[in-house]
Amino acid sequence: xxxxxxxxxxxxxxxxxxxxxxxxxxxxxxKDKPRQSPQLIAFGYGGQLTPQQIYPxxxxxxxxxxxxxxxxxxxxxxxxxxxxxxxxxxxSINQDNWILEQGNERGVIVGGNQxxxxxxxxxxxxxxxxxxWRNPANIRIQSFQDALYAxxxxxxxxxxxxxxxxxxxxxxxxFSWASKHTFYLQLPYALTPGKTYTxxxxxxxxxxxxxxxxxxxxxxxxxQISHIGFRPDAPAKVAxxxxxxxxxxxxxYPPKQKFWIETLQxxxxxxxxxxxxxxxxxxxxxxxxxxxxxxxxxMDFSGFTRPxxxxxxxxxxxCSFPFEIxxxxxxxxxxxxxxxxxxQRSGIAIGPPYSNYQRPRAFHPADGAKIxxxxxxxxxxxxxxxxxxxxxxxxxxxxxxxxxxNAWGGYFDAGDWDRRIQHVEVSRSLIELAELFPDxxxxxxLDLPESQNQIPDIIDEALWNLDFYRRLQAPNGGIRGGIQSxxxxxxxxxxxxxTADVLAYAPDPWASYVYVTGAAQIAxxxxxxxxxxxxxxRTSAERAMAYAESTWSVPDNSRQHFQLWDARNLAALxxxxxxxxxxxxxxxxxxxxxxxxxxxxSQWATHDQRDAAFLYLRLAERLTQPQLRxxxxxxxxxxxxxxxxxxDRTAHKWTKxxxxxxxxxxxxxxxxxxxxxxxxxxxxxxxxxxxxAILASQFSTxxxxxxxxxxxxxxxxxxxxxxxxxxxxxGQAPPPGITVYGPLDPKTFxxxxxxxxxxxxxxxxxxxxxxxxxYFDVFTxxxxxxxxxxxxxxxTAYTWGYLAARNELNRGR
Length: 813
Fold this sequence. Notes:
The protein is of the alpha+beta class.
């Protein structure tokens, strides 16, 4: 057995692993590799762990990241002939899956023909000896170039945070965790730039490491900047500086530290000083919460406009990921975000030449899929607006024998395969972008199967979804709330192997009103482009509106909820724009909160008429009433100003749609809350709203403590394990353009069910984590890694699309 000294002596004869990061282009493809921080060399034999990264946090604090544990994902394969006799005699478990042992693998039988075997994941690899890393006497640092470290010295203190980075499902309900350990070593003396140091430990599972301290060029996780970059004319260009050391708390940085912008070749082009953005004890919202638990400093270089590729560096500390200042940075980002919708399409095969991500066609009648009509309505379930009962308790029991042959299409939602009427919101947002910026989006190519037709691709994407609900329209005009399987996906089954009953909800007035807003909008957009298609959607909208109007007032639970009233209000306004019939203005006015000049555009659990307000302010004045228009304009800009103030309070400048909402699920930080700000900018061309929207977009694009873009395939680092079952089972990289839910507030979600399962792997305790770091890229962490079309993908695409197209603002007015 070699001792620690022998490792160093043999450094030239053993494997030297230079740990580097791979930059990803904005569309998820490999591009030039940036310099990794710092120059790290790890010496290891066999199963020894080698650090992924070592970087300076301060001149006297270094961080070491070590990944422990390896997940080998389960795969599908044909059941062998030898296994079939055993399979015929085994018992069902949980009424969902059949357990099978094939060779030395254990897994489940999947698919309607029961000829496929899906093996459970496997977990392997050495673990860190955490006891060793708790004691500073076990960790030493030495340098033959720095006199202060000529003799090996023990570190002063060690702090740690540990996060799960992947999950291995090793049986039906058993999990093991691959982890990322970050150790923060406070040193007896500050490091000297340009000198090389070696760190050794008494942990036999961790190899010694050598690094060169080069704060003028190597990357530090303490520096956070947007991976997408900035347009030259952006009124706000900022980066952030902060570190939370787990059980060591926040790091204090001196005020007014020097920072600079340099080219990737090292030429300095801009100098500045850090400024305090928010302290660790300062509240960031009306709830009095601080979401960082450490001081956050901001670096403003808004005045720098020269196009190029750069990095931002802080004196004595290090540099950021490379970023670009360029005219098309948001254009490239929007392309990826919008194609996240294409990757979630149901009823179509996904793959070349339109995408490298591949998935067979699923839920299409030509492949034998049957969609049964149900008598349960979406509005009455937890998938609608009531919040109860759970759809599983009513939908399967309401199945009828009648099938719907044209019930294919739409978008898969979240980690499973339901398609819900709420997705119409996304179609409306795409059409709105085309309305605001017709020249830009008329020529924008999304590389879709429909790209060769005469309709802009952004409208083709909107129509893919709207046409699904139009084909679901019942003979009486009512719109079904969507399609859902009778149970959650079975372990190991993909979307095209679904064996559960698939059911279409019965029509209801709320779903019909929601559909009307999209159908009337597209009919209006098409009126001078494709009159035949416009007429089809106009007729469909009129029929759906007639059904909803004849049924909405029938006493039922849905009438008790404000979402029904808001949907009726917006549908009436959409019909007014389409038909110019004044009766719809009267209905809109009768159901509008804006009859009260002091009303807000949105109030928690009371009303949300933001979309209606923006549409009304864009209508021809001859269709509106002056006093009502004035009330709406004042309310709309009060809300936009509230959002600006919300961003002013937060350290990283993100905003909250609702000051009192908790961070998590659909209200998390992965998705920019910018739509009202961007609409205010459109209406007023006031740069203050554009500035606030750009700042509010930075956290989700990488300017956050994890240096992570929360949309797959974008930037240098993005989620690798979103909750996409098809991706997981097929072993592919995630499809680009999926914006996950992101961080969960540990205070609000203290009892999250999957956090409870992961608790043994999380350190410090879950309750002690700052919200801005409380995201784990784990497939099965539903509250973090799942997503929905309307809560994450749609708003991200809208924001990035607006920021890409805004130079053509005057043309679209």
